[in-house]
Write a structure and sequence with these properties.
The complex is a heterotrimer of chains A (321), B (159) and C (315).
Chain A lengths: L5 E13 L2 E8 L13 E8 L2 E8 L9 E7 L7 H7 L6 E5 L13 E7 L4 H13 L3 E7 L8 H7 L4 E5 L20 E6 L2 H14 L6 E3 L13 E4 L5 E4 L5 H7 L17 E6 L2 E2 L7 H6 L2 E3 L4 E2 L3 E4 L3
Parallel strand pairs in A: 7-8, 7-10, 8-9, 10-11, 12-18
Antiparallel strand pairs in A: 1-2, 1-6, 2-5, 3-4, 3-6, 12-13, 14-16, 14-18, 15-17
Chain B lengths: L18 E6 L1 H17 L3 E5 H4 L3 H6 L5 E8 H14 L6 E6 L4 E5 L5 E4 L9 E2 L6 E9 L4 E6 L3
Parallel strand pairs in B: 1-2, 1-3, 3-4, 5-9
Antiparallel strand pairs in B: 5-6, 7-8, 8-9
Chain C lengths: L4 H4 L16 E2 L12 H14 L1 H4 E3 L4 H18 L4 E6 L2 E6 L4 E6 L10 H6 L5 E8 L2 E8 L8 H4 L4 H4 L11 H10 L7 E10 L10 H4 L11 H4 E13 L4 E12 H4 L3 H13 L2 H6 L6 H15 L1
Helix pairs in contact in C: 12-14
Classes of the chains: A alpha/beta (321), B alpha/beta (159), C alpha+beta (315).
Protein name (chain B): Dimethylamine monooxygenase subunit DmmA-like C-terminal domain-containing protein
InterPro entries (chain C): HODM_asu-like
Organism (chain C): Peribacillus deserti
Amino acid sequence: MYKENTIPVVVKTIQIETPFVKRFTLTAENGYILPGFSGGSHITAYIEGSEGLLERAYSLTSYGDNNESYEISIHLSETSRGSSSYWHRHMKIGDKLRISYPKNYFQLSYRAKHHVFYAAGIGITPFLSMMAELCERGASFELHYAAKSREFCAFYHLLRSKFPRQCHFYFSCEKAPKKLTYESLQHHPIGTHVYFCGPESFISSFKDAAIALGYPYSSVHYERFTARSSKSAAPFLIELLNGETIPVSKEQTLLEALLEKGMKVPYSCRAGRCGTCELKVLKGEIDHYDEFLSDEQRNSNSVILSCVSRAKSEKLLLEYG
Amino acid sequence: MKQESGDTPMAAFIPGKRKYLFCFDEIGMSLLEKIMADIRAKDIPFEIFHFSHQESALPAWLSSQKMGCYLYIAVSRKYLYQIMCLAEAAGFSEEEVQLIGYGDKEIHLFCCRCHSITELAAAANKHAEQLCSCCGLLLTVSSHYSPLRNAYLGYPAII
Amino acid sequence: MKLNELDLFPYPFHDDVYRYSNNSVLMDKPSSVEITPNYLEEINLKRKLLGSSPARCFQSLPYAKKAQWEVLEIVAQQLADSYPDKFSLDKKGKNWVFCNTLLNENHSFIIGDDSTLPHEPLDFIGRHVQEDLILMMQRDGDLYLDAGQLCFPANWSLAFNLGMKFKEIHNPIPGFKEEKLDDRILGFLLRVEAGNPWQRKNWSLMAGNRMDTSLETYDQWGKDRKKVTRENAGEFVYLRVEVQKILRMPRTNGILFTIHTYLLSLDEFCQNRKWLEQFYSILSELPEYIAEYKGLSMYKDQVLQYLKDKMKRGD
């Protein structure tokens, strides 16, 4: 499977942002400068926890020319499966870990005339670097940010001092509660791009409202952080059109099993990324591990990237052979 | 924004928008009649802009619109590119605009050798070979189009 | 000691049948450029072409400037890291000094300040590497060719393709759209991540050993293809291989393509018996639409006859 190159880093500072959010500064272990990044970027952090390797994505909340350190901000989740709880309860200054290079799947639009960010809770994190980049570009933007109260509103003071004209806060548990609704979506001028980040229900309600108003899909952006679980591989069977059945052991990939049988399946990257080894599936349920297929293709359960993906069911019938 | 290439322009109704905008000239209006009638019948908000009457007010009209609108432009192919650029500058994306051009279209030919652009008369046969107006190379018109140059690539006709 | 060209040649095939595909592989050792023994010769040629035909060899759009600086940074840093005896990059805050001992040149500049460089940033660093450099910016979910230095194109025009989307650029390739390869490769490129660059090889045949096979000069070099015979193919026809490296630039989220072009005459190529045999099967099976697009249908038969003669003689 795709195994990315990582950067070894050290925790340099830990600061308390709110009762539930801590900010961590990371510097390169070898003292090198870290790669630059664009607004909306995140890193994947790899931590050796007691229950194995924890892998989570965190937005980079610093921005600018300072490439000596990265900053990430982590909300302690009640239902944490270990990662945020590890960061909050065990991580110390001087601890070492590995992180990925910066990645950006939440890029700012280039053609937008105006950018509007909608954040709920810790969903604020990707917007910090995005707003900083827009400031640098001299572009027009505004932020609508919902939190329980000032006390629980991460980056409240920073936002107010850095972007005083652009920020609008909505505190639901203060004396005069204010609710962030999607009513404002009606008033954005043509050429506006909207960005949503927060809990799943928040994202989907705002996204649905924008689409219902007639916003084109390409002007609506959102980011979800869903951790991909890496289950242990199980053996399965494949059946070919010619009736032949081939077993795939748990140590083997589907592609390897086919190649071993002398089948000339085209392939290239063997990492679930290039799409060359795609095969059609007629029957059986697929466990997708690739980064290539679209959600639509994935859900159709009709194509598989044989180099990484496997069967959920006992057997897959392939349109091959 | 895609320019339809067929000879019989057809406007297609795109449902699910809060408001529809129609920009047209005399002949263009007739090409949008059916859709405008449908929208009237459904009681969906719409606005019209008569291009031939108030050309200079177009940028302001476009910029005053809100998100969720859908724009139809039905004009002579002479003005289509120009209006498309205005709509883009106002913030309309490909997904929010439909272009319906009528009449002959001027073709711009990009010379692969000297990079000059030769304007081919509206009536010129697109498939015939053409001389580059600058360096004189005989070119065949390809279907490779550059939106930035608003031109088709011309390859050497004789090798 | 002169390294054998055969040993350095990036053999492009891994199968007896060739079709268009995304044949990218992750690079074992990430790099953007490579220095080969032809360095001085090719740099001189590049600089000559850039001087005589600037519009053909360099193009950029205004908003790509920040990304151009990132290209300079990535390439200069890698030269200094990979070839410390030939290049150095000294950074004191924003004041950088780049030294190229192969050319005996020192350049001081302020990073991000265009006025401190003799050329635009990508054009500047491109004059120190054998590769052509193509910058594709990722804007609104698509990739656009927004800047590039191209001295050794395989029959395409940078000036025409400037500002185009990935799929628009590849529109003329027959079968590319029909087989949805354009969608697939675009999807792949959009997911290329920083720190994990990819590499692919592309090939074609050339009548003559000209590196500068631009579309702009096609009316001159295109004729040579009519001169190929079974007898002269060995020394006149060259296999042209482009090693393309694909890197995500983390700061501007663009994609940098570097293209290193290698030429090898068929006579030299055929010294490797396995290559000769595999290439013969590929060429004899090659569908007409691919041969046509690669510009070799005019002399494919002559080359096949030549390869056949070679195989017989070896028996």
